[in-house]
Amino acid sequence: MGASMWSLQLHTVSVPVPLEAFWRYNSTRKRTFKKLNIVANGDAKNSKNLPHQIMVVKSNKPNLPVLLQDAVTKLQESVKSIPPPSLLVKKHSGVSLPIALSTMVTLLVIILRNYVAKRSKPNRPGSVADLVRRGQLRSDRRGISNPLKYNDPFNNPLVKVSKSNSTVEMCGQVYRLAPVTLTKEQQAVHQKRRSRAYQWKRPTLFLREGDSVPPDVDPDTIRWIPANHPFATTASEIDEDLAQTNVYQKHGVPFRIQAEHEALQRKLEALQSEQKLGKLVIDPGAAKDFERPFKTRLKTEEQLDQGPYNRQMGSNSSESEGARDSFVNQHSSEEMDKP
Amino acid sequence: MLSLQPLNPKPSSLYSSTFTPPNSLSPKTLKPIPAFRPSRNFYPSIHSMLQYNRKPQLAGDTPRVVVITSGKGGVGKTTTTANIGLSLARLGFSVVAIDCDVGLRNLDLLLGLENRVNYTVVEVLNGDCRLDQALVRDKRWSNFELLCISKPRSKLPIGFGGKALVWLVDALKARDEGGPDFIIIDCPAGIDAGFITAITPANEAVLVTTPDITSLRDADRVTGLLECDGIRDIKMIVNRVRTDMIKGEDMMSVLDVQEMLGLPLLGVIPEDSEVIRSTNRGYPLVLNKPPALAGLAFEQAAWRLVEQDSMETVMMEEEPKKRGFFSFFGR
To answer: Where is each CobQ/CobB/MinD/ParA nucleotide binding domain found (chain B) (predicted)?
Structure first.
């Protein structure tokens, strides 16, 4: 057994894998023998000299060492039959080098490909592409966010006139040039023809169908508007002078806003003088007359703000101040919305 | 930048030469009015100049109030307004574009400014806002501003719009930062109240037409009305020209259109699929990169508008590009 062990230990250098299996096998065997020994002697102290005693043990199963020896010899034979891997490598070295190289190259390519794919992944979280994917942005509107413009309108390389001046090349396509033949006389002839064909006066008066024609008005300058015209209205509710001053206004609060503010102010003052504010906050109906529809939300907020304040303080003058302030804020916010 | 114009003996001109057109020109075009067809010897020679690194010189008094009209709908008035307006802004002039289409405004969409129109002229007249609050400044070119007459469903008293536009032009002139160089008015289709409103403050007009007889008839009538109204400076832009169809004699050539209307040419815009794309994007064609063919043509038209110039040569059919020896290797 000792010799067999030695020979196996020699083999460990060249054949690691079967040896390891054998070691495992051997250690289990040792444990079995130890058990057998303990069973045979009934003494735990002798367990130290286990390897020496193995050979002299008389177990209850007399053919076990023979079996074991058979197995060991079999294994030894099988191990001997396998050529050492070093020889294998030597034998196949000419073929395996390209295989190893190609394997390495494949691995390298796979790693590089993964790296590139990771780098070029478009949807980084938070990027514009990611926003488009999530439906936050419309992809067709993205042109506005990065303006496309070619730099110099005064030096356009895409327009070239040929040396003979007969062709022009634009956007890579060549066009033949032809001279314009229209003369001043021809233009005058056309103008005369049109002045004969189309007699027209600019309409100055617009009347709905069925209206009576006022006196001292040239009937050619009247424009008759059908009653069911979709957007036109002949009735003018706009004061023309006022509209003109509105157009010419350069600074300050626009007229209508100012008027609304002043009217509300007057209303509040009237309510103050009648001492109605002690009981009720602000009459919502009275304020509504001066409010435009889109202001209703602001107004209700204003009322909510003023309600408890008014009840607590009971001071009319400070209340009106507060209302004015909120109105001014409203104006300023409107001015901030300037397009 | 290319500008085709009559030969000018200015020493600044970089390049000029003369050219006699080939005889193949006359049979290539249709002849709707033979009376005006000049003889072959009558053709003047072609003069063109290449102008690099030069700004166009502004001619006439500012602000120049230009109405862009056509009579017929769908010929490209709004596209022309947007592109010429932005071209002028790119050339360094301050521009206010007014969308005069009361019921069916579209200029804001073409410019991509539809979300920024809060106030219109109607609100200015009512006193809800000031004029400077109703002007929408373009973020791409800050010297371009848009003004809409009204929101789609609001009503403006007929007969009042013209007066209002005259006041607007006066108010724009008297602005603190100085009046704009150009006020471009996008006119609605037809010769209705909207047309009358739009042409009221204008002192020159650009007539947009396509080379088909329906559009030409309307254009002729509108030109007549403009002349009756006292607008004498009328130039035309022929839009959606297809050189391949002209070559096959399926479409009137630009020279034929000019013979029928007798108006000086401001520009010839070729048919381009990029126009629809740019309309859908809300991004005018002249800002495209790479520049589209139609965008270049609009830019040249804007250049001529600034200099109160008209085309002296027009582009005819396409010629195959001459390829060099090394073009075999791909170019």
So the answer is: 66-284
